[in-house]
Amino acid sequence: MDRAAMSVDIEPRPDELVFLEETFGGLKTDELSIPYEETEEWEIQVDVAGTVGLDELVTRDEDGTVRLTLSALPTSEVELRAVEPPSPESGQRTLDSREAGDAFATSRREEMPPIPDPTPLETDDDMAHYERLRENPNSQPAGYRRLLRDAEEISRPRFDRLCRRHGYDPEGGSHNASLLMLERLGEIERRGRGNDQVLRWVGE
């Protein structure tokens, strides 16, 4: 079954439903468009807790556009899945990776704080990732640092999905090593385990 990390907003348009997801701290928005005649080919899984006011869930922009704002749902985890793999003839579009460098290159905030002293680091692997962070602002550790600072707090599954979409392998050793290095520097905290883990920025 094909899956797409789904957005937090659903915008109905004349001929299609458009799923919108802000990524990398709101620096960009990815879209997935599904024609109404193809909606039976998709299903949506929403895992939520708590309640939300209807005025928060259904919003209207100044131009009259109505949106279903799933981000208003507390602790929401949303996934859009194709019931059957889409055929090449369907013309169906999936969320694609768009210029990962642009998303990582700029923080929403004017400047990143100085990189902390490496004294807390414990291993050669820590130091290798620290050197990449210090010497290359477009490196994986530097990108993760900016993303986590902008997000402030993000679930591990969502973080992993975003990284995968932007060309990084969440199963690779550098993925976890970059997070561990940032944690030992005292800039992030990791709370919980597995899919329940939450990443939180605690640096300057």
Can you describe this structure?
The protein is an alpha+beta fold and 204 residues long. The protein folds into two domains: 3-84, no CATH class; 101-201, Arc Repressor Mutant, subunit A (Orthogonal Bundle), CATH 1.10.10. The chain has six helices and eleven strands. The strands form three sheets. A five-stranded antiparallel β-sheet has the order 4-3-2-7-6. Strands 1-8-5 form a three-stranded antiparallel β-sheet. The protein has a three-stranded antiparallel β-sheet with strand order 9-11-10. Strand 6 and strand 7 (66-69) form a beta hairpin. Helix 4 packs across helix 6 (173-184). The radius of gyration is 19 Å and the shape is elongated. Residues 1-7 and 85-110 have low confidence and may be disordered.
